[in-house]
Amino acid sequence: MAHTKFGVNMSKLCRDTASDAVWHLSSQFVDAVVQSLVNMYVWITLLAGLALLLALLKTFSTYFFQDCVYMYRALGFGIRLNVYKRKTPFYSIVDCFLEAVKKHPRKAFIHFEGKTYSYEEVDKESNKVANALRSEAGLREGDSVALFLGNEPRFVWTWLGLAKLGCPAALLNFNIRSKSLLHCFSCCGAKVLIAAAELRDAVEEILPTLKEKGITVYLLSDERTTDGIQCIGQAIAKASDTPLSPSLRSNIHIRTTALYIYTSGTTGLPKAAYVTHERVWASSFIQGVCGVTSEDIFYINLPLYHSAGFLIGLVGSIERGNTVVLRRKFSASQFWDDCRKYNITVMQYIGETLRYLCNMPKVKAHMVYKYGDICLYNLFLRVTVSQICLEALWDSATTKTQTRRLSDVFVKGDLYFNSGDLLRIDKDKFVYFHDRVGDTFRWKGENVATTEVADILTMVDCIEEANVYGVKVEGHEGRIGMAAVKLKEGRGFDCINTCSVLANYLPVYARPRFIRIQNSLEVTGTFKMKKVKLVEEGFDPTLIRDPLYFLDLTQKKYIPLSQEIHKSILSQEIKL
C-alpha cells in the first residue's frame, strides 16, 4: 500500500511538475515574443524618428551633413595644432617641407611657365639662397628681410631659405611704389631688401632714403648697374646646396613672428600685420579641412604677398604635400587652358575671379572638382561682429588698427573688429561679400583707401582739392576709382602730369580711371566730403555737365570722356 500510494503520488507529482514546466516555458515564450515586439516597435519608432529628423535636416538644413564632415576635419586639425604647440623642439612648416622632400623628392612641387621644379630641386635652391645670404649679408636668426618679388618660383625658395635661417620675411606688394613702398619697408623693421630685377626702377626711386637708413639692397640679378644695389644672383648660383643645421633656428617657437603681411591700406597707408608660426600652421590647415589631399594639383594665381595666395595656397600645399601650378597673375582667357594642361583639381579664388570666368565663353571639360575660398562659420547662430580674443590681440599688435576696434558693443568690456565689409546672407545661411563701406572701395580684388588716393591727387600741381570714391561699372565686380577735383585758380587740368604723379605713387588698381572737374566740392556741416550723389551719378557724360576725363593707360594720360568712349567701356571693348 505504501508503495502503491508512493507511486501514485510520484506520478501525480511528475504530471504537476511537467504541467508547471510547460506553463513556465509558455509564459517565457510569450514574454519573449512580447518583449521582441516591444523592442521592434522601439527600434521602428527610433528609425522612423531618425528618418524624419534626417528628412527635416535635409529640408531645413541642406548642408548639415557636409557641415558635420567639415567640422570633424576641423576638430582633427585643431588637435594637431595643439600637439604642435607643445612639441619640443618646435616643429615648423619648414620641417614639414623637409619631411616632404625626404618622402617624395622627385615629386613635382611647382609648375611654372612650362618648367617643373621637384620638391628636392626647390629644397636645394632654398639651401643656396640661405647659404649665400649667411655669407653675403650675414643674416642670422631673427633678422627681418623684406621680399619685393612677383609670383615666381624664386619667391618660394627665397622665402624657404630665409625660413631655414629663422628670418621672418615681410611680403611686399609688388604693385606699390614710392611713399607706400617706403612705408611698408620701414614698418617691418627690416635691414635687408631683396627685390626682383624687373622691379629695379621702383627700388631706385626710394634708394636714397634706404641708403640714409643703412639698408642693404639685393637684386636677384647678375648685373650691377646702380650704386647702392648689390646683385646677388651669381652668389646664389655659386653657393652650396648642402642642408642647413636646424640649430640655426633653434630659438623659433609657436609664438615667434614668421611673416609680415600687409593690409590693403583701406584706412590710409598699408599696415604690417605680423603672422606667428601658430597662425601659419592654422592657415595651412584650411586646405585639409576643405578635403584637399596630397594627390591634388592646386592652382595659385592670387598674389603671393597676400594671405590667400601665400598661407592658404602655397603653405597649405606644403602641409598637404601636393603640387602647385603657379602663375604670375590671374588670366581669365588662359585659366581653363591651364587647368586642362596641368590636370588641376583645386582652384583658389576670390569673388571677382568667378565673375571673370563666367564672362568667358563656355569651356571644355576639365578636372577641377574643388574650389577653395575663405569661409565664415558661426556654429551657434549667435550675432557676431567679429569679436577679438586676447590671443588675436596679441597676434595683431603691430597692425595699429585702433580705429577699427569697437568696445562695449553688446556687453561692458567686449571688443570687436569692424572689418568695413558689407555682407549679405541667403536662405541657406551662406554669407556673400557685397561691398566695402566707409572711405574705401574694392577693385580688381584689392581694397583702396579713398583718403590716400585723394592725398596723392592733391600733390598734382593743378589740383587744389580731391574727393575720391568708387563707382559701379556694368559687367565688372566691385567699384572702379573715380575722383571729383577742384582745380587751382587759373589752372587747367594737366592730363599728362596727373597720370604721371599717380603712376609714381599708386598701383594701377588704385588710380582713378575717371576724373570729374568741379568748380567746388560739396561738404557736410562737419566738413566731410559728400560722395553719395557723386557715386549715384557715376561717369555717364550724357547725365553729367562737368568735364569728364578717362585714364588711358596706353597713352599714359587722361583723355576727355566722350559718349563713344563711354559706350565702349560699357560694351567692354575698352578693358578696365
Automatic annotation (TrEMBL):
Residues passing through the membrane, by range: 40-57
Homology family: Belongs to the ATP-dependent AMP-binding enzyme family.
InterPro entries: AMP-bd_C_sf, AMP-binding_CS, AMP-dep_synth/lig_dom, ANL_N_sf
SUPFAM superfamilies: Acetyl-CoA synthetase-like
EC supergroup of this enzyme: ligase
Protein name, UniProt field: long-chain-fatty-acid--CoA ligase
UniProt keyword terms in alphabetical order: Fatty acid metabolism, Ligase, Lipid metabolism, Lipid transport, Membrane, Transmembrane, Transmembrane helix, Transport
Gene: LOC107712501
Domain AMP-dependent synthetase/ligase: 99-365
MF-aspect GO terms: long-chain fatty acid transmembrane transporter activity; long-chain fatty acid-CoA ligase activity
Keyword Membrane: yes
The protein's Enzyme Commission number: 6.2.1.3
Pfam name, any one: AMP-binding
Catalysed reaction, written as an equation: tetracosanoate + ATP + CoA = tetracosanoyl-CoA + AMP + diphosphate; a very long-chain fatty acid + ATP + CoA = a very long-chain fatty acyl-CoA + AMP + diphosphate
Any one of the GO BP annotations: long-chain fatty acid import into cell
Keyword Transmembrane helix (UniProt): yes
GO cellular component terms listed in the entry, alphabetical order: endoplasmic reticulum membrane; plasma membrane
